[in-house]
Amino acid sequence: MRTALASRTVVIVSGNEAPSNGPSLELLNTFELTCGDSTVSVPLGAQRLLAYLGLRPNGVHRGAAAEQLWPDSPCHRAAANLRSALCQGRRACPVTLIDCIGQRLRLSPLVRLDVSCISQSARQIVDGQAPPPADSETLIEGLTRELLPGWSDEWLDADRERWDQMRLYTLEGLAHRFLTAQQYLPALRAALAATTIDPIRETAHRTVMEIYLAEGNVASAVRCYQQYEAYVQRELDVSPSPQMTDLLQGLPCLQSDRHRQRHAPPRAPVSVPGELHRQTNGARSRDAAATLSSRHGQRRDDGQTPAF
Q1: Counting beta carbons within 10 angstroms of the beta carbon of residue 214, is it exposed (0 to 12), middle (13 to 18) or buried (19 or more)?
Q2: Cα–Cα distance, 218 to 225 (Å, whole number)
Q3: Strand pairing class (112-113; 98-101)
Q4: Which residues, in sequence order, are bridge partners of residue 85?
């Protein structure tokens, strides 16, 4: 049980979930605040404050929030901007969105946050506390969303990195759980979603190959390997790890490719045009000299004096 302030009234909220009919804040793909059944228009300053607090569930000090949100402004101007954003947030919704506890600010527990909901569901599934959902497509689709795309605030960089790493590990974990349960379609969806988020990350591509091989689609696994190998060689000049190569160990197609690369005959050196011209002229000179010498010997045999 915990308490939350709402319109100067103490409201008791049981559990960790916000009420389903309370305000909802979306930070994935776009910023959107919903109160009841209506989408609320929020000024930019209040948007940034709500997003900042939503990604910091333990709350922050007022001074730290002002400094992070308005880093290019003097301290007094940043503090004034923060007060303005707080007023805008209070007017946005009949329910209090931001709790002010002394000098600390936090997003009210009454606000349902999409990032928190998806992260909590994902952790429970990956940790084995809950079975994979019957509607896996909804969870996978939620994990493919970016955190506030288009926002250029520097304070978002670390939050984006944490979100990306969390969803990558979650998608790979989901893919392995579905693979173990022989649910190949949701497993492939989760693994392919991870490769889209980070194309260079090898573990996601290895998971895709494992799913293809479990299905018996050997050609698809080989094609996945070849595409990834070409990509990392082109972008980073590196090769796939032994763990990835070992997945295809013993396949004739891979062995024949390596055999052709090892035993391919060396290419003949290509002559440059000038060198080719000199070689041709030299050959012609040697032929002409041999012909003249032959004729000279013939004339001596006939007893004739060569003419000069």
Answers
A1: middle
A2: 11
A3: unpaired
A4: none
123/106 Cα distance (integer angstroms): 23
- Quick check: 141 and 170 in contact, CB under 8 A? no
* 170 close to 143: Cβ distance less than 8 angstroms: yes
Tell me which amino acid residue 59 is. G
Where would I find the H helices in the chain?
44-54, 62-69, 75-92, 114-126, 136-143, 156-180, 184-197, 202-215, 218-236, 242-246, 252-263, 273-301
Cβ neighbours of residue 146 closer than 8 Å, sequence gap 6 or more: 28, 29, 160
Both tokens assigned to 244? 């990835």
Classify 121 as helix, strand or coil.
helix
The pLDDT tens digits of the residues spanning 22-64 come to 899 999 999 999 998 889 999 999 999 999 999 999 999 999 9
Cα–Cα distance measured from residue 145 to residue 8, given in angstroms and rounded to the nearest whole number: 36
Residue linked to tokens 């009210």: 108
pLDDT at 302: 47
Residue the block writes with tokens 């304070």: 155
Q: CA of 140: how far to CAs of 20, 84, 119, 264, in Å?
A: 22, 38, 11, 45
Task: Tell me how crowded residue 18 is: count the other CB atoms within 10 A of its CB.
Answer: 21
Query: Residue 268: which residues within 8 A CB-CB, separation 6 or more?
Result: none
Q: Residue 178 corresponds to which tokens in the numbers above?
A: 């579905």
pTM of the model: 0.73
Q: How many of the other CB atoms lie within 10 Å of CB of 259?
A: 11
Neighbours of 123 (CB within 10 A): 15
**Could you tell me the two tokens for 50?**
């709500």
